[in-house]
Amino acid sequence: MIYLSGFVGFLLVLTAEARVGNSSELNFCTETEECLLFDLICRTDDYEVFINNIADMQVYVRSYGGWMMSWTDKNQAETLSSALKSAGAEFDRSFHYGVGYNSPMMVFNRHNEVWYVVQDDPVCGSSSEEMELSPIS
């Protein structure tokens, strides 16, 4: 049994046969390693989730669908960077944010974004001036 410190974890041993069971069932999967283990909740206070408050910032955003993989993130960041350079925008080129809004279990209608932080004044008007903003659910 593998427990990922305070993290809801999944372990899948790829075989022709796989059984599913809660990893707290100690006798489940003892006769074979071909099973899927999952933990529903963490039972300790050792969580590895951190809340990091950052100052307000302005960002240039490019939205895209599909799965967020390293190569799609890189491709979308390069596309946004090229468009910003063409527009004469000043932005921090040293890093970008990759933002995913969906559960890994959601297959269709996924929403991802890449962000570059604006330096100086943005080259376009604020989107909050043009439309009413609402939280993404």
Automatic annotation (TrEMBL):
<feature type="signal peptide">
    <location>
        <begin position="1"/>
        <end position="18"/>
    </location>
</feature>
<keyword id="KW-0732">Signal</keyword>
<protein>
    <submittedName>
        <fullName>Heme-binding protein 2</fullName>
    </submittedName>
</protein>
<dbReference type="InterPro" id="IPR011256">
    <property type="entry name" value="Reg_factor_effector_dom_sf"/>
</dbReference>
<dbReference type="GO" id="GO:0020037">
    <property type="term" value="F:heme binding"/>
</dbReference>
<dbReference type="Pfam" id="PF04832">
    <property type="entry name" value="SOUL"/>
</dbReference>
<dbReference type="InterPro" id="IPR006917">
    <property type="entry name" value="SOUL_heme-bd"/>
</dbReference>
<comment type="similarity">
    <text>Belongs to the HEBP family.</text>
</comment>
